[in-house]
Amino acid sequence: MTKLITDEQRALLLANGRESIENSHFDPLPVVKLFTPNAGATWLLSELDSEDIAFGLCDLGQGFPELGYVSLTELESLRGRWGLPIERDLYFVADKRLSGYAREARLAGRIVA
């Protein structure tokens, strides 16, 4: 089973979390994209403020993506339709800041990445 985030991603997420505390205008690139393979949910995570609580753009597939916090432990325990776990997009590379993804998601009603 693939880990939700790699050690390298965890280090970058934690660094972004520290920067966010020091700089209220910090607008990082998302570090990792997680998704349910068959349930329409997607998360673009940009920060980690502890070992478990991540911040990013969250889309539960109901047409209302929003910026917010999520527990990695809870994500690891979730299962979509047919019992499939959440996966990490191995090929995701952010091409805009988190605010850009959030703006596009609000207009589209879903994360466009």
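^ that was protein a. below is b, sequence first then the tokens
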Amino acid sequence: MLPDREALLHTAAAHLGRHPTASMDDIARAAGISRATLHRWFAGRGALVRGLEQLGISRVRAAVDAARLEEGDPGDALRRLIAEAESFAGFLGFLMSESQLFEPGAVEPGWTEADERIAALFRRGQETGVFRVDLTAAFLTEALYALVTASAWAVQEGRVAERDAGPMTAELLLGGLLRREPR
């Protein structure tokens, strides 16, 4: 039985999150289909990546919605967002690296919307005195994506326990790297 497009994208996302350089043959094998069947759905890697980009946008939107970024303490909202993003963090890393291959200025509007909602959280945190004001909201948004991705890779490599990845990501982003004296 052939998988539907959505199921195929989810399989490809999971596989590429762990193996970002996987070939179309590798992806087809992971999905349990032939390469010809994969090509019926997606003419090539570019078409597959565009489909995956749409899936990624929907996952990020769902995570942002579920995290309720406008509610409560900005630090708590950021922790909720990181927890929501953990399930697709490796896939997010794949999309970040693939986005470097797209034409400059060819950013999908869905990413811009997600970035703006996350940046709004950082600005709210800055305006309320919770977050540093010497770092821009745009930089903090990119730093969030990078740290979530790095934590997923560390889990995949066995360097970090899965249960610790999200909390450690949140604490590094919120607390920075400087050692603080115990109170």
